[in-house]
């Protein structure tokens, strides 16, 4: 008789173990997926950035943010707006996720109530008051005080820009009423055309010097920049303003433009977001802000911006941590999405710990039950044979005995084909002995009823 090699048998049934583990594994996997998606969702791939008017510094910087974040698969949609006030309202209404907002546009209490957070101040955006050098009669203007604007045609831009509110505060500290000037509300580009055509006497911008219109007007003959000689006093009266100096020759050293230092007053531009902006995106925007605004400029030193200072809006916790500690550890060495994946895995770890420990106590009994159930279910067949034996009538005892013995032979034949791990072989051998016990009982009981 050919002997089966011992390696054909195993102490553990891998198939049964997998079947026993499967429900637990599926449950754990489902919990991990739910935790991964619901508890800490992945950052969105599309963000709306409210910028500013055509040819404004906000619009220029919006394009730069879109370019930088596109490297990490984030689509930034820069939306042209009227300016700071409009941007603030869009954030409040949920029409934008992030926006450029000028300091002084809101208060800390209002920002907290409206669910807004700051990602840091980005740059100073001076108040540029450009005036025609000569009046309508060709006489040269020599202005050194805001009071001298009385009666002039000055464009402040639309209400949504933030400039009208800011300049009215400037007028107020000088004791002027807006009605004492002829104010208009054209957007920057058409207002510049009107200024060059002589239809207005001056216009007011509040913007970074990178704005194309600022660059152009600083070099336009016949257009003069107003010098805020009392700039330091303005910063005392309006604390959200800072005093900055436009150095002589900074525009064009060769042509000595400007020909003198100009003192300017300047709010700061802040990157403001809704408080529900994904934390990973906050890190990404602050990182981009460092790349865009971190260098030297006309009014800033290396590394001065971006900064958690110069803003009345509460700084987001993730942004404050970035300014304090630098980029998250994983983002220094991995791509954004891979770093974000590992950063979110702690949620999965918590889900695993919460489920695996209790479920691991269920798997061993389930495995044992599955193995032993292959044996135990045949005891039901044996019990049915015994019941048939008890009910067998004397007149049919021979037929009953042959039928019961055939049933027992069939049971034994199928039991012999049961595959069971060696660790549970005792149950299989016990079943086979019980089959033989019932067979002997059938023979003895029926023989006793009909002695030879």
From TrEMBL:
Keywords: Coiled coil, Membrane, Transmembrane, Transmembrane helix. It comes from the Bacteria. Pfam families: NMT1_3. PROSITE patterns: PROKAR_LIPOPROTEIN (PS51257). Residues 379-406 form a coiled coil. The keyword Coiled coil applies. Gene3D superfamilies: Periplasmic binding protein-like II (3.40.190.10). The chain crosses the membrane at residues 12-39, 345-369. PANTHER family: SLL1037 PROTEIN. This is C4-dicarboxylate ABC transporter substrate-binding protein. It comes from Massilia cellulosiltytica.
